[in-house]
């Protein structure tokens, strides 16, 4: 199952996404024009669009191993992110330039704390 998952995807603000694309994670399928990145645009991107992209990366795409998502973007669709329990793709919440990381909101850390009884 995991041998076909070779890509890292990103959902984030323009600065985060651009930085990761410059680092080399960008990929566009020439046949379908599917991208492994999504740029959140403040005051233009809706919650429904974020949920649709999240579902595409986590449920429809079978080539994504890791989904990096800005924590403030994940907060906008927190119930969807928290309800995702599949091992692949792994969801990692990351900070952005304008929004610091808050470990209390991270869904993975919440599960780890619950596992250890904290």
From TrEMBL:
It comes from the Eukaryota. The gene is VMA7. It is a peripheral membrane protein. The keyword Disulfide bond does not apply. The lineage of its organism: Eukaryota, Fungi, Dikarya, Ascomycota, Saccharomycotina. Its main location: membrane. Keywords: Hydrogen ion transport, Ion transport, Membrane, Transport, Vacuole. GO terms for cellular component: fungal-type vacuole membrane; proton-transporting V-type ATPase, V1 domain. This is V-type proton ATPase subunit F. One of its GO terms (molecular function) is proton-transporting ATPase activity, rotational mechanism. Subunit of the V1 complex of vacuolar(H+)-ATPase (V-ATPase), a multisubunit enzyme composed of a peripheral complex (V1) that hydrolyzes ATP and a membrane integral complex (V0) that translocates protons. V-ATPase is responsible for acidifying and maintaining the pH of intracellular compartments. V-ATPase is a heteromultimeric enzyme made up of two complexes: the ATP-hydrolytic V1 complex and the proton translocation V0 complex. It holds the Pfam family ATP-synt_F. The keyword Membrane applies. Belongs to the V-ATPase F subunit family. InterPro entries: ATPase_V1-cplx_f_g_su, ATPase_V1-cplx_fsu_euk, ATPase_V1_fsu_sf. It is found in: Vacuole membrane.
